[in-house]
Amino acid sequence: MILGGVLYAKTKVVVVGASHGGHQAILELLHRYDNLDITMFEAGDFVSFMSCGMELYLENSVTDVNDVRNFEPKQFTDQGVHVLNNHEVTKIDADKKPLQLRTPLVVKLLITITTN
């Protein structure tokens, strides 16, 4: 973002979880702010599984797994949001801002999220 001729770095935001709360958080962030670098982490391989999805499936109300999604990841990736499934956030240090993750390929990975 350029404000008064000064270039400002994007503020990095992390959203943990791709269910209802994560979905709504990203919608609000995209609506309210222009200069964000948003990354959403989901522990599972299925992004946006509705809480009631299993019940709907067992009742034969839905037959396709995609019918129990709140959103398609493309809805956010098209707007520049990084969507990382199979990335379980196991620890967050709010003061120093690193995240500790568990992924299928890496047992522990530290990512430092800095704000300017």
TrEMBL record:
SUPFAM superfamilies: FAD/NAD(P)-binding domain. It comes from the Bacteria. Its cofactor is FAD. Keywords: FAD, Flavoprotein, Oxidoreductase, Peroxidase, Redox-active center. GO terms for molecular function: NADH peroxidase activity. The keyword Phosphoprotein does not apply. The keyword Oxidoreductase applies. Residues 12-101 form the FAD/NAD(P)-binding domain. Its EC number is 1.11.1.1. Transmembrane segments: none annotated. This is NADH peroxidase Npx. The lineage of its organism: Bacteria, Bacillati, Bacillota, Bacilli, Lactobacillales.
